[in-house]
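// run 5 | inverse folding | seed 20
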């Protein structure tokens, strides 16, 4: 992060003056708000906190170009000196597959080691693995337990994680009032993400009367607090859509850029789109793609899909099916539904891989079972025509019905075509199966 004084100067246009920020308890995060030269100087002196802070900034591009290899080396040095936060970050490198093979088991081992040493960020990371079911069976009770341990250890982010469980009713009764109280506690502690979450409740009307203007006010407060990136990008989205403020694409692009500088993957993607299309900024394809690649390298699925489509369509670049496949696979590997559907299309059409109908249908089925309507339509076609599987008209009609309900523009014609050759009983059976369908989590 940049220094607090520079942040205030950046926010002079568009953000109300904020009260003095309370000090951060976490020494690494506090150091990351100092100028880069100070962070670099400490790292050069083999200070573990300086090494960990610099590595963290290298990981998301806040210290120049993204450099996971250099970040890994710095984390390893700090971890060897016994720094618990560095050990936790080694777990994160394994979880993300940055400069190391992606390995959730290895990530959990490092997180547990760091948590035993008192690293509250590792406690949050363990909770998140249980919440997402990454490398372990999904277990919201375990997630809550780890989040509460982090909260008891004074972690400035933990209240938000607990609040998200209450807001969504994940493993606990849904309770927007508790969620709001937790988000407010984080905001009161100077955490910009707390303001962002509070704003989200007002923007959607969850637990409070919907008030988009109030949401924008909260985003502004978050943009002037610690960890401002998420609030900044939401301010940009509010201006882009005219939600709670007058529509202003130039102002939107300004906020995207500020959030991108703070490491927001979403902001990098939105800024890339703005630059590619000239929305609120001068059209600049090269700079736009630079931000898009940065977002994709940080694992943002929409940016990865954007690049995949760019290479498959030859949009301003030579068609390169192998590169397209790389980005589709990156999105699919993190569970993105569109990425899984695109991988199915790649194996169906031979984009960068030999045609393999079995693998194509496996990807389509994974996404279809999770509710992705394009994949449902594709799986219906396979079942209708025997494309890589046995013909099953009942299953095909079920998938077409679900795809049509999800908005697939081709599915209604497929429904009409297949019903012409089906018995009334089979049509009724397919409709019943479609009505009883529940997407897998």
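// decoded
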């Amino acid at each position: 992060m940049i220094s607090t004084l520079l942040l205030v100067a950046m926010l002079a246009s568009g953000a109300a003056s904020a009260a003095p920020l309370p000090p951060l308890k976490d020494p690494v995060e506090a150091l990351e708000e100092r100028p880069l030269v100070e962070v670099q100087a400490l790292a050069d002196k083999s200070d573990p906190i300086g090494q960990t802070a610099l590595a963290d900034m290298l990981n998301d591009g806040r210290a120049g170009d993204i450099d996971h290899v250099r970040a890994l080396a710095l984390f390893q040095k700090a971890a060897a000196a016994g720094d618990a936060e560095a050990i936790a970050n080694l777990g994160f490198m394994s979880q993300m597959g940055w400069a190391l093979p992606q390995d959730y088991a290895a990530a959990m081992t490092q997180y547990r080691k760091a948590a035993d040493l008192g690293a509250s960020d590792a406690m949050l990371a363990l909770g998140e693995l249980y919440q997402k079911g990454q490398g372990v069976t999904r277990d919201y009770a375990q997630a809550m337990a780890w989040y509460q341990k982090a909260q008891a250890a004074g972690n400035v982010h933990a209240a938000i994680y607990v609040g998200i469980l209450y807001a969504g009713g994940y493993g606990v009764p849904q309770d927007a009032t508790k969620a709001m109280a937790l988000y407010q506690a984080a905001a009161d502690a100077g955490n910009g993400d707390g303001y962002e979450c509070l704003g989200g409740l007002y923007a959607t009307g969850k637990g409070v009367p919907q008030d988009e203007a109030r949401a924008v006010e909260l985003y502004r407060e978050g943009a002037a607090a610690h960890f401002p990136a998420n609030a900044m990008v939401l301010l940009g989205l509010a201006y882009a859509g005219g939600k709670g403020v007058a529509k202003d694409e130039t102002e939107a692009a300004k906020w995207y850029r500020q959030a991108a500088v703070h490491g927001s993957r979403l902001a990098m993607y939105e800024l890339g789109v703005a630059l590619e299309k000239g929305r609120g900024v001068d059209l600049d394809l090269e700079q736009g793609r630079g931000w898009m690649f940065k977002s994709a390298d940080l694992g943002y699925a929409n940016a990865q899909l954007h690049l995949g489509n760019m290479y498959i369509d030859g949009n301003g670049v030579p068609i390169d099916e192998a590169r397209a496949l790389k980005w589709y696979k990156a999105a699919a590997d993190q569970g993105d539904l569109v990425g899984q559907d695109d991988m199915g299309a790649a194996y169906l059409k031979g984009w960068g891989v030999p045609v393999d109908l079995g693998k194509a249908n496996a990807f389509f089925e994974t996404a279809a079972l999770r509710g992705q309507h394009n994949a449902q339509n594709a799986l219906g076609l396979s079942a209708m025509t025997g494309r890589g599987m046995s013909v099953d008209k009942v299953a095909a009609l079920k998938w077409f019905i679900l795809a049509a309900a999800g908005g697939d523009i081709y599915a209604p014609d497929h429904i009409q075509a297949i019903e012409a050759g089906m018995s009334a009983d089979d049509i009724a059976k397919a409709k019943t199966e479609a009505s009883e369908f529940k997407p897998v989590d």
